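Researcher: Structure prediction, please.
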Amino acid sequence: MGYEAAASSSDVYVHGLARFDPAANCGSFGPSVGMDQMTRWDEILTLPVQNPPSSEFSAADISWSMVEGWKDSMDRLALIPYSRVNDFVRGESNNKDCPTRFHVEARRRRPPTMNCKPKVDGILEYILYWCSFGPDDYRKGGNVRPSRPISEKRKTPAGRPNTKRGCVCHFIVKRLIVEPSVALVIYNHNKHVDKKGMPCHGSMDKMAVGTKAMFAPYISDELRLQVMSLLYVGIPVETIMQRHTEMVEKQGGPSNRDDLLTHRYVRRLERKIRRSVYELDDDDAISIDLWVENNQDYVFFYEDFSDTDTFVLGIQTDWQLQQMIQFGSHSLMASDSKFGTNKLKYPVHSILVFDQHKNAIPVAWIITPNFTHGEIYKWIGALYDRAHTKDPTWQLGGFIIDDPLADVRTIREVFHCPVLISLWRIRHAWHKNLVNKCSDIEKRSAMAKRLGDAISSICRGNGDVELFEGFLQDFVDCAGFLDYFEARWLPRLGAWITVLKATSLATAQVASAVESYHHLLKLRLLNEADKSVYWRADWLVHKLGSKVHSYYWLDEFSGKNSFSRYWRSEWSSGPNPWCQGMQIPDSDVVIEGNYASVVSQKNKEKSHVVLNPGSEFALCDCSWSRKGNICKHVVKSAKVCRDRGLALPSLAMFHYYQALANLARCPPSDTLISDHAMAVAVSVKTQLDAVLCAVNGSSSISPAFQDPQSTSKPRESETEEANSENGVCASQSQPGAGDDEDQDIPTGKKRKSGNASGDNDDVSIYQDSLARKKHKSGEASGDNEEASTEEDSRARESRKTGEISANDEEVSIGQDSRDREKRKSGEPSGNEGTSATQATQPSETETSQATNGLPVSSEA
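Model: Predicted structure follows.
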């Protein structure tokens, strides 16, 4: 079928309407819309918008509807989000039986200057996608459009006329005025056949066997990105082709289009990179505008300078979006907000996710002036919409900030997740300047420990700015660091103290990963011989989108070891310092007083000394630590100290325990919600007891969460045992009790007959667990030794006589709503041993994983 014949039914006409004339019809097809067409469009606009969750999808993943079209024909159509049209085109191109590539055969856009009333069938954009093996047919006896005559054959043809085999497969995409966010896809010709109805390419075409028509006409986007990345980082063309040829031979010959990569194609890409320039115009602002216009797929947000707005440019490639969806879903996302503040014209704000090796990957770069770095409300919504449109099920687990002035409220509203803060920025700056400005090692160690203790006290809610004022008074002899601290950090401490008291803290593992990313970005970006280019924004966006992006893509490339001979300092290899520290054996760590000795893993005869092991501001004598970074020796020594009980749990662990304690000890204020929660807890507990009884023959449950700062005292233990034996559980602490949440609050009033106190319904889960265990072991009172039938009988007798023991004043938090109603009406519960569902307390390692996966915010 020739182009004119194939197009007459669907692409030039829109099913019953005249030809497209935007000037006369305001973006619609035809002079008017009759009743039949109104019915047709009503039926179309009522169809559901389908958005498959996969990164790419094809026609097989969509439910198609048949709607009456031109000349009583039936159109096969569906509605998808307009932003996912490219995903549909890529998915449809990756057909297993007929791999191909769809190109834009025709495109029409509505002029933006039209000032007339839009019609129901008006369109903003019309795109005709055609299989690249058509519509022309250059085979013997094939039809060729007369508008595109074939020139005389040359010895080295520039185009691809041999790939045109008359395929009639094509579809139409329309962006409607009434629904600009939705694309109407009309796919009537979905078979890869020629005008005779015979397969014309792919595995079904017998004439294509042994030719390039078996495969797609072009290499895949993945291979093209791989080749471009290797070229950007300096890998020669010959080396790329040699490794590719070895790989194809190893697998036994070509099996897809990518295996047919040619030296000519790679050389052409190398020439394109060599001739590319960042300075598109002498004016930096105009050059940025031109870059944005030429790289629309890379830009998710752009706002130029105006009277009311400032410059903001958000960059995210397709690969970065895939990483954001893959590693950010139900996981953590972090922010490095101030890279290049002193060297670049506009600092870089990086958004990071963490891969399976816990290394940080940049998934977006935001470039904006330094004075507007806190205005994230402008672009953060666009970043979320970009990921959520691609995968509607995508949900972030937690967002980590490194700036106390960040707009936390906007982050919570957009991502619907807890917000944590990382100390890596202040720890890195203080550590680095301590090493540079204080030469006395002992004094440096004492100052670092003092700063660490101050931060620890503030995060635990026991300190304020007076701690730093005392620090300045006690170390007046170290003028170099104190001058820096007073000038740079003392004015900012108020904001930091406020956010540290109100926000949960991220783990040191996150800090190590962000720190490593920051270091690598500095190596990869700020390595120009001509420093003057740092003050041009067009150079910055060009290098981020090309060379820097290529380095991070290669970090995740599994075959990068094949090019190890070309590795330089900009290349990343191996795990980050946190993971390296976890691999050091415990036997290589020796703790002696205020320092630890860690055996070097490269040279077993050498050891590194770690000062203040277990502290948040530990110092090491290795080269990585002297730069202000968290080294593997500090990580390992801190873990050993905490495992042996020589140091307090980390601040992240403290916040984690505190959040769990708050969840367990603070029931909802609403009575209906509280009763429902109690009922659900009792139901779950009953089911767990039944399962445990069936499996282990015992219904005991492990201890519940405790306050992270609480310590077991002999007097409190004796009181708990006495209360447990008497059937009494101590009440939990009242709100505002500070850190002493496990202290018993004495009750000076006895419950009156027929009346229960509603204020003392909640009790410590752990104490109730002890009471239940003693009840099962026979150490409880005589009343608890009777069978359940005897307890019910005694309870009924007590209700008849109205006698209520004074020891029944406190009740278990696990009693259900039915027991509460009985207590309110004067009937004590007969099942005082029931408690809420309990959970085991995580270890330090488990909490590190949990905090890096699904963080529990203390704000919950």
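Model: Residues 253 and 711 are 68 Å apart (CA to CA).
Researcher: Thanks, that helps.
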